[in-house]
Design brief:
The complex is a heterodimer of chains A (353) and B (499). With 353 residues, chain A is an all-alpha fold. Chain A has helices at 14-62, 66-70, 74-85, 92-107, 120-131, 153-162, 174-183, 188-191, 198-203, 215-227, 234-253, 261-266, 270-277, 288-308, 315-332, and strands spanning 139-140, 170-171. In chain A, strands 1-2 form a two-stranded antiparallel sheet. Chain A is globular. The two termini of chain A are 41 Å apart. By secondary structure, chain B is α/β, with parallel strands linked by helices. Chain B contains 15 helices and 17 strands. Chain B has helices spanning 124-133, 146-150, 174-181, 183-197, 211-221, 241-249, 269-281, 311-317, 358-361, 374-378, 385-393, 397-402, 413-417, 424-474, 476-498; strands at residues 25-26, 33-36, 46-47, 54-55, 60-63, 72-73, 78-87, 95-103, 160-165, 201-207, 227-232, 264-268, 287-293, 301-306, 327-330, 337-338, 352-356. In chain B, the strands form four sheets. Chain B has a six-stranded mixed beta sheet, with helices on both faces. Classes of the chains: A mainly alpha (353), B alpha/beta (499). At the A-B interface, helix 1 of A face strand 16, helix 10, helix 13 and helix 14 of B.
Chain lengths: 353, 499
């Protein structure tokens, strides 16, 4: 007997979806690779390559088709997002270890594509951050390719594979700087004066991981994905909205301890998180109402972690925390079935919906 | 008219332009017609003819059996060759009892029932009777006996007859052509049906992608104030009965209820035309318009096809295959059934025969679910296909049932959008089949249990009566003495109960 209908199918595929996400990431990535120069390019290649290699190894161990599965581009996307969440001049082994955690332990140990509870790239990043806090918090100010003082390819090899960042080049990320100053008793109102202005932050001329800088290009990529209907507005809008509102509220109450809503939106990995990380299909809820709850959760957790926890940046942790809630959110936010009440009982006859 | 949104849905490639401008053509009578006894939901008809009988066109050759059933009529004049088992137009391709008729080429009508002179003054019952006698079924594809549905007015207070001209399935244009070429017949049929149902209003819903049909029908309806044509948005599955009712009236049919419970009855436009023929001319349903289309058909067309024509003959009339079809589908591409054999006949519910190329079907091997949630977004029933499929894969059908798999009407929107090409509808059809079987087994079990219990009680009672009789026989004297008292006591008890 033949398979039942439909005998028509939309022009969607997993590969096409992943490809569009990669395409949306490209402008921000290219700009940031330019901004941070050869060491960033090397780390990017190493991280993506490691993810693909680990994926291939896991598939072959599990006895699944290797080439056909690699073609879905999901490992490339994980590696890409992972590279964008690492300090651009981090040593090569950070990328490789993060790839192993992301692909082997977070994804394939749970059954491969679609089966993982947590966002692989974010697990890779946070495990590295907790295990190697020093290497993961060495930031550099932008050194655009071919500019004066930017490392050449040879120096870049020394930085990425030799692990030697010249001390003079390191800098603090905006969130890190505020947090350090705050711990020294210097209020936000004062420390924020030493920051690049918000315009520079939006454009990306500041220290940070690749995905943290250049909020505008990330935003453009995100809007592109929305236009292509790969993602919907629900998670980004609810995450950005809740983060902005709670930050603005506390900033209004106590500006000496809390930075403004705009600062929170433009700093750290907020935009990358909102459009590319929190929207990961596998680890976010499937229903629209669930996605809104999820987004609000990520926004609130991000703000809380940034302000009250030991780490200056909280997007990755916030996403992981909400990932763990995704199954339960899904269970409680299933849409109402046609002709039934929320509880699943048939609608009463008289009542209009 | 204010319209109401319906949930989810998709916008597939419609490809209606393959046949939308092709006027209906009648195909020549094939060498043999194969008329299955069951072309409808309900009980199969009962054969009235035998091998060698000569029949006229329109003569009843099988009568309906039971309340939900329809008779079958000879689609042309000729000789009954045999009553045999022939492959059914069903994905299983299993044979079913079929009357095989050899046309004599004269196509002579037999004695038909008298036209109902003024149907709008006639007793609604006379119209039901005529529709039932004419073998009319829902021609949108469901093939439910129309007379049963027209009878709903006797049980329920009805407000609207909603005529379904949405034709939301891709490729299909038979309803579009019928509306464009026979608007008067469709509207007359609809008004007759409204008379039978007792509905004061007739609303005809047509999807906006059929502007000519909308225009022509609106013009034809302008003479009748109770008839209104409404253009509904192009959104698959707009033609689903419950969804069309929701789009037009804003009312949501409760689960396990009928639209008739809301006072609305939905019939297909081609059905209305068949009712017109039956009531005005006494002609039974012996032919229908079928859209023959798809990339593998040489000359796609809308063909007036005698019921019982082999699909192979119909395809040949349309120039045969221009390429090897990947699938031949009975109905539309979304909800149609794959045809196991081209020897299966066209039946009353056959709206389309599609020969689709692999390119049109655009199938791919299934890959892992990435939980994108598209299926949840598009499900017009508000279900979560992703979750139901996960449980069905683990054969955990109870949970799938709790999640509402029985509410799924297999519209195929989820399968259509799934980027991983997971055959979700196939899973759901499987689950529904198994769950239905379990349910019927459970009912059967309960019935047997009740019967067994009743039997035990009956046997016990009989045994007791026997014992009592024996006891009465053994001491008749004592019994006679105490009978007065016993009678009194019994009366007291009865009074107590009544109080």
């Amino acid at each position: 007997m033949k398979k039942s209908g439909p005998f028509a199918h939309g022009f969607t595929s997993v590969q096409k979806t992943m490809f569009l996400v990669l395409l949306a990431l490209t402008p921000a990535t290219v700009f940031n690779l330019y901004l941070f120069g050869w060491p960033a390019i090397l780390l990017f290649i190493v991280t993506v390559g490691a993810c693909v290699a680990v994926e291939a190894a896991c598939l072959s161990v599990a006895g699944k088709p290797v080439m056909a599965t690699l073609a879905d581009c999901s490992a490339i996307l994980t590696g890409w997002l992972l590279a964008m969440s690492l300090p651009p001049w981090a040593p090569w082994w950070i990328g490789v270890l993060a790839a192993i955690f992301a692909i082997a332990l977070t994804k394939h140990a749970f059954g491969g594509l679609g089966q993982n509870l947590f966002n692989p790239a974010m697990v890779g990043r946070t495990v590295m951050l907790i295990s190697f806090p020093v290497a993961m918090t060495v930031w550099v100010a932008p050194h655009p390719l071919f500019s004066a003082g930017a490392p050449g390819l040879v120096e870049a090899f020394a930085i990425t594979f030799g692990g030697s960042i010249p001390d003079t080049m390191s800098a603090a990320s905006a969130l890190g700087h505020i947090k350090t100053e705050l711990s020294r008793g210097i209020p936000v109102t004062q420390s924020i004066g030493q920051m690049p202005d918000l315009m520079d932050m939006a454009l990306g001329y500041r220290a940070g991981s690749m995905g943290e800088t250049s909020a505008l290009l990330i935003l453009a990529g995100g809007l592109f994905l929305m236009a292509k209907r790969i993602i919907s507005w629900h998670i980004p809008a609810s995450m950005l909205g809740s983060l902005f509102l709670i930050a603005a509220l506390f900033h209004a109450i106590d500006p000496t301890h809390f930075t403004s809503g705009t600062f929170h939106l433009l700093s750290g990995a907020t935009f990358l998180g909102a459009f590319f990380i929190a929207t990961d299909y596998v680890t976010s809820p499937v229903s629209k109402s669930g996605q809104i709850i999820f987004g609000i959760g990520v926004g609130l957790f991000t703000w809380s972690i940034r302000n009250f926890a030991g780490y200056p940046e909280g997007v990755a942790f916030a996403v992981l925390l909400m990932n763990s809630l995704t199954p339960i959110i899904d269970q409680y936010t299933r849409p109402r079935a046609f002709g039934r009440t929320r509880k699943g009982e048939p609608l009463p006859l008289e009542g209009k919906p | 008219m204010k319209l109401f949104p319906i949930r989810g849905g998709i916008h597939p490639e419609y490809r209606k332009d393959l046949t939308s401008e092709k006027a209906i053509v009648a195909m020549p009578m094939p060498a043999a017609l194969y008329i299955p006894l069951q072309q409808h939901i309900g009980a199969p008809a009962e054969v009235l003819v035998a091998e060698g009988d000569l029949v006229k066109k329109g003569q009843m050759i099988a009568r309906s059996q039971g309340a939900v059933s329809v008779p079958q009529h000879a689609p042309t004049s000729g000789r009954i060759m045999s009553v045999a088992e022939v492959a059914a137009p069903h994905p299983s391709g299993l044979p079913q009892k079929t009357i095989i008729l050899e046309p004599d080429g004269k196509d002579e009508w037999g004695d038909l029932p008298e036209p109902i002179a003024d149907p709008f003054a006639a007793d609604p019952h006379a119209i039901h009777e005529r529709v039932a006698q004419s073998g009319i079924v829902g021609m949108g594809g469901a093939a439910f006996p129309s007379a049963v549905k027209l009878n709903l007015g006797t049980q329920k207070k009805l407000e609207i007859l909603l005529l379904n001209g949405a034709e939301c399935e891709p490729y299909l244009t038979c309803d579009d052509r019928v509306m464009r070429e026979y608007p008067g017949e469709v509207i007359d049929g609809a008004r007759i049906m409204a008379r039978a149902l007792g509905t004061p209003r007739v609303v005809i819903g047509i999807e906006q992608n059929k502007p000519q049909a909308i225009e022509i029908m609106t013009r034809a309806a302008s003479a009748f104030p109770e008839v209104e044509v409404v253009a509904v948005p192009v959104q698959y599955p707009m033609g689903s009965e419950r969804h069309l009712v929701q789009a037009i009236t804003g009312r949501e049919t409760p689960a396990r209820k009928l639209t008739a419970d809301l006072g609305i009855v939905v019939h297909n436009v081609a059905t209305a035309r068949a009712v017109h023929h039956a009531v005005r001319f006494g002609r039974p349903l012996v032919a229908r318009v079928v859209t023959v289309s798809g990339g593998a058909i040489r000359q796609p067309n809308n063909v007036l096809t005698p019921i019982g024509t082999k699909v192979a003959d119909l395809v040949e009339f349309c120039g045969g295959f221009s390429a090897r079809p990947e699938s031949v589908v009975n109905g539309g591409p979304m909800m149609g059934q794959p045809l196991a054999s081209l020897d299966a006949p066209v039946v009353k519910g056959t709206s389309g025969i599609l020969a689709l190329t692999a390119e049109e079907i655009n199938d791919s091997p299934t890959s892992a679910c990435i939980r994108c949630g598209s299926c949840v977004t598009v499900c017009p029933c508000g279900l979560s296909p992703v979750d139901m499929a996960a449980f069905i894969r683990k054969d955990n059908l109870d949970v799938a049932a709790k999640l509402g798999v029985m509410d799924c009407f297999s519209c195929g929107s989820c399968s259509y959008v799934c980027p991983s090409h997971i055959p979700l509808v196939h899973y759901f059809n499987y689950a529904k089949g198994v769950l239905r079987e379990l349910e019927s087994d459970r009912r059967k079990g309960e019935r047997i249990k009740t019967l067994a219990e009743t039997r035990t009680i009956r046997i016990e009672k009989a045994a007791e009566a026997k014992r009592a009789a024996l006891a009465a026989k053994s001491k008749p004297a004592a019994d006679a003495a105490s009978s007065g008292n016993a009678g009194e006591a019994k009366a007291t008890t009865e009074e107590k109960v009544n109080a």
